[in-house]
Amino acid sequence: MDFSIWGKVKEAKLRYLEQNEDPRKSPYVPIEVAESWIRSKNYGVDPYKSVQAHQLSPKEKIVLAERKEMLIQTAVPLMKKYLSLLSASGYTMLLTDERGVILFIEGDKEKVPEEEFGTIVSEDVTGTNAHTLCAILRKPVQFIGPYNYCIHLDENIVSSTPIFDQYGDLIGTLTIYQLFAEKDIYNMQAHSLGWITSMAYAIENQLKLKQANEELSLSNGTLEATLAVVEGGLITLDKRGMTAHINNEGCRILGITQEETLGEHFTKYLQNDKITGILKDGKAVSNHEIIIDNGETEKQYVMSIYPIVPQDTCNINDKLNGIVIHLSRIENIKKLVNDWRGASATYSFEDIQGKDPLFLKIVGIARQYSKLYANVLIHGESGTGKELFAQAIHNASCPEGPFISINCSAMPRNLIESELFGYEGGAFTGAERKGRPGLIELANEGTLFLDEIGDMPLEIQPVLLRVLEEKKVMRVGGKKYIPVSFRVISASNKNLNIMVQEKTFREDLYYRLAVFKLQIPPLRKRPDDIISLAQFFIKGTSQKVGRKMPVLSKAAQKVIKEYAWPGNVRQLENSMVYAVSLTQGDVIGAEDLPDDITNPITPENSRLFSSVMSLREMEITAIKNALEQTNQNIANAANILGLGKSTLYKKLKEYHLEY
Ligand SMILES: Nc1ncnc2c1ncn2[C@@H]1O[C@H](COP(=O)(O)OP(=O)(O)OP(=O)(O)O)[C@@H](O)[C@H]1O
């Protein structure tokens, strides 16, 4: 820099200030400086006033301190260090933000105006100065005193350099200035621009490093947080199969701690061919069923494995960096399946109506049973409410678990085994490719309700017994056992004790099922409940169809009280639905009740019907004959009868016929 022009610049500035002579025409004034003088004049800056800086408001200062925290923390220690190294006095260093607001000032304070954090020293306030010009030009500048717009700064020499962030955005300026009168000026000033540009460079590098570290720790934190909330176990292995990461759920599933797994080969805690496979061929595995023994229990999980490959890789075999294993509880999937197939219990103990003392005692016993996780056998005539009790017990003990109901009499014999136990892919002709879990597997952690258990085929009984004893099930055609835990509630209207004596039901299975027994009394044995139950059903039906609840006439009450109700509560419910639908007015008369209730077949009047067979009897006889002729073949019998197979099953159930 040529310091001999000092006086020439001073003169040019005075001519501009006093005679308004265009400074751009002076050969001694750089064009950027001349233009800045013109802007300063237009801003109304007074060049003869020594202190004219403004302060930010206290609130603005707080915001600024937060915004520039990282820059201040990085730059200030460096500035202090450089200043302490300078033996000569008379130096001042200034750090500003990109708008020209002071962030830090340090040095020979006696010789510079008293400025502090938050002071605005921008071009529009203090006129042309080195740091604002360097910010405008986005490059280092060196200033001789008279370049400054204000006269009182004429004796300074200043070097300013911009500071950029990692994205190339201007975030501040670094300035060093000294008084012209100081000794050794040529020598020192020649170096000062070099000092501050290298300092700014060092600040920028440190900032980049800090920012990169911050981003890394943010992304690490995000990853950790994500892995912690992800449902299921997550394990990351490197390409050699060594464990790089495992989340808490993963540890819980495997029954191990992070310390035991990290850096260890996966085979130490999880033996699986699929994992070995993907480490070799890099091919993802999705939804593979797996059984894991965590040292205490064996549980079923669904495992998916994903290869980790660089984003730009097409051929994963060459560049597998590692794999991510995801383990989720199979119960989540089963729950979904059960929700879809409506495998849940709707009734609870509150839904069981009745005030008969004997009946209430049974409800109390059932409540006790629900607290103990043991199998229950419910005996009672058809329609007495056996399933209602089963659902209530289930809901009182494990409402979250599935309630899988199986009607043993309605299930086709040839399908019962695969329905109950499931099957592996290709186990038999017509089996699905991937196989299917059975109802017992789906009942895991819930209740398996075996309705009409007396109709469970004898050949299936030992298999069911084994499942109940060993608490594990093997699918048809399968090779491995799947652990299961469920409560069996079975129901029967047949006397299983007699069936055991007649050897049509296995004794060992009977004792497994009948840990607790419930005997539901028929409706005729609790006459006090008949009218209240009838009214309960009338009310429910009227509400459903949105009409006023009709009253049960005295005559109707007499009829239903005297009737024997062979179909029990179900028959009473159906009769009340019928009566509500038939009644036009507000009263249900005896004539509104179904015929079989008002004119029951009694020993006295049965003679009238003896020569004529009822439709029901005719159907039963026809079905029996067809089954006999076809050697119990349902498909052929249905063919002979001109019925669909499912209709025939329904009728067999309805008439309680064996096949
Ligand atoms: N005490 C009761 N309170 C209210 N409703 C009842 C009661 N008992 C039975 N019901 C109703 O009667 C109908 C038949 O009950 P449920 O199906 O439980 O009988 P079940 O003994 O299992 O019959 P089945 O032996 O024919 O399978 C259901 O609609 C049930 O809600």
UniProtKB/TrEMBL annotation:
Keywords: ATP-binding, DNA-binding, Nucleotide-binding, Transcription, Transcription regulation
GO molecular function: ATP binding; sequence-specific DNA binding
Gene Ontology biological process terms, A to Z: regulation of DNA-templated transcription
InterPro entries attached to this UniProt entry: AAA+_ATPase, AAA_lid_NorR, GAF-like_dom_sf, Homeodomain-like_sf, HTH_Fis, P-loop_NTPase, PAS, PAS-like_dom_sf
Segments forming a coiled coil: none
Domain Sigma-54 factor interaction: 352-581
Residue ranges occupied by any PAS domain in the UniProt entry: 219-264
Keyword Flavoprotein: no
Stored SMART domains: AAA
UniProt xrefs under PANTHER family: C4-DICARBOXYLATE TRANSPORT TRANSCRIPTIONAL REGULATORY PROTEIN DCTD, TRANSCRIPTIONAL REGULATORY PROTEIN
Protein name as catalogued: Signal-transduction and transcriptional-control protein
Biological classification of the source: Bacteria, Bacillati, Bacillota, Clostridia, Eubacteriales
